[in-house]
Specification:
mainly alpha, 7 helices, about 0% strand, globular, binds protoporphyrin IX containing FE
């Protein structure tokens, strides 16, 4: 039992160490993630369309949001389990959020990575990850599977 737990902890530590090496090789360390999150959400706040939508939900809670987003990106990048939230639930019911805003979010994220002179590989990694999550959030928020139910489709007339 004890050996099992020790073995599992060692295995997790190996996975994290490998992920940290892989991220370091493309120029990403915890300090880069902190800087990226601070720069990106600073830009979000002054963005004409994204700013008010975030502010309506996060007014007075920005420091906690940034801490959570740093943990989120560290968790994905370094596989260290730092984040354990529920992103889909968190995005439900945000006033004014549209599918088009997700595109604007991704454009701003890419521009931030370019301006921070992230390596090509880091840009590719962050964008692939963000696009994957954006796609699943858009599906969860705006596409109702019930609408694709053939039983609910209008019968062709004539
Ligand atoms: C237009 C696009 C987006 C808007 C307006 C938006 C807005 C928000 C807001 C307001 C919150 C805070 C929710 C709360 O604490 O009450 C949040 C949390 C979060 N967002 Fe987004 N978001 C967008 C896109 C994305 C994308 C593309 C990602 C993927 C990288 C993402 C990842 C997250 C995560 C991980 C959280 C923390 C969820 C938790 O509480 O555990 N968001 N978002």
């Amino acid at each position: 039992m004890q050996d099992d737990l020790v073995g599992r902890a060692a295995h997790r530590a190996d996975i994290t160490a490998r992920a940290e090496r892989q991220m370091a090789a493309i120029g990403v360390d915890p300090a880069f993630i902190d800087r990226l999150v601070e720069t990106f959400y600073g830009r979000i706040q002054s963005h004409a369309n994204l700013g008010p939508v975030f502010e309506s939900r996060l007014s007075g809670r920005w420091p906690e949001h940034l801490t959570k987003m740093k943990a989120f990106w560290a968790s994905v990048g370094f596989k260290n389990g730092a984040y354990g939230g529920k992103p889909v639930q968190a995005h439900h019911g945000i006033a004014g959020v549209t599918e088009g805003l997700f595109i604007e979010w991704l454009v701003l994220f890419r521009q931030t990575l370019v301006d921070m002179e992230a390596t090509e590989e880091a840009q590719a990694w962050f964008m692939a990850t963000a696009e994957r999550i954006a796609r699943s959030l858009v599906l969860a928020l705006f596409y109702n599977p019930a609408l694709d139910d053939p039983a609910r489709r209008a019968q062709p007339s004539g």
